[in-house]
Design a protein that fits this description.
alpha+beta, 3 domains, 4 strands, 65% helix, 12% strand, elongated
Length: 298
């Protein structure tokens, strides 16, 4: 089963002392990229979140939003009043000496950001080890929802890819039907031109020369190898759509559609027939749509 790289999931954990909510949003990316935002100290623990997510998500850009609600007893800041008063006095004295006493009210708010005045971050870091099991439980629930969403979109994507795959197969079957007629038409046109030239010039043409010319054209326009390789790529593509791959089918599908495009381009440049050119255009269009779609497959 194919998995989309786009999804959303939410997980929650509640206890008398702690409430945790984790939101996961994923979009396509060549590798696994995890960004954590929200309540401290968790944005600094991206490696821990990535370790958990890597068990389920192989690649994609994952935004983790975490919100932690602690009880008042745990969340109440420990204010160092003595240090704060001393800093206020120093700031007031500095403003008076510099003649900028009017700046004092605007500067007081910044004192709360001075390290040690409100050591909430340090307290939160100390509680991290106790909180992590609950955070991990909420994260696990969010991953479950995320996977369910990615499977649903992956199924929809598979249906669309099968439609484009069928369009290429149909056009390729038309190419196979036209190829013998292309050679027959060329042989007829060549014979007619030679007859006209011979009649006008009054000369004779050796049969072996005519055969050689037809053989050269056949060699230049032979697309059997391209048709064979394209057929093989389409078979592999169908196999991946049906069974997936242990390490994710996205990269393999991207490689296959690249190879399919190469064979289709070569086929179009060598065939030299209007009817085949139209079929090649249809195949190119379907292959380009496949290329865009598989970029969102894990």
């Amino acid at each position: 089963m194919l998995l989309s790289m786009t999804g959303f999931g939410v997980g929650r954990w509640e206890s008398p002392l702690l409430g945790v909510a984790v939101e996961l949003r994923t979009v396509n990316h060549r590798h696994l990229k995890v960004v954590v935002r929200g309540s401290e100290p968790y944005p600094s623990l991206e490696s821990e979140f990535e370790k958990h997510l890597r068990k389920t998500v192989r690649r994609g850009s994952v935004l983790v939003q975490i919100h932690v609600r602690r009880t008042e007893a745990l969340n109440e800041p420990s204010l160092d009043g003595g240090k704060l008063v001393a800093l206020i006095e120093q700031l007031k004295l500095t403003c008076e000496e510099s003649g900028n006493i009017l700046l004092l009210p605007h500067l007081l708010g910044g004192l709360l950001a001075v390290p040690g005045i409100v050591p909430e971050a340090a307290m939160a870091s100390a509680d991290r080890e106790a909180e992590w099991p609950m955070v991990e439980a909420a994260l696990g629930k969010a991953v479950e929802q995320l996977q369910a969403a990615r499977k649903i979109e992956g199924h929809t994507t598979t249906v669309e890819l099968r439609s484009k795959h069928a369009a290429i197969l149909h056009a390729l079957a038309g190419v196979k039907v036209h190829l013998p007629q292309v050679m027959a038409d060329y042989r007829g046109r060549l014979l007619e031109r030679i007859r006209t030239a011979v009649a006008d010039a009054g000369i004779a043409v050796q049969p072996e020369h005519l055969v050689r010319e037809i053989a050269l054209y056949a060699d230049r326009t032979d697309v059997n190898e391209e048709v064979h390789r394209l057929t093989g790529h389409l078979e592999q593509f169908d196999e991946l759509l049906t069974h997936g791959a242990p390490d994710g089918a996205g990269r393999r599908l991207e490689f296959l559609v690249q190879e399919m495009g190469r064979e289709i381009n070569t086929l179009g440049s060598k065939a030299g027939d209007v009817a085949i050119s139209r079929l090649v255009f249809d195949m190119k269009s379907a292959a380009e749509q496949i290329r865009e779609i598989v970029q969102n497959i894990e």
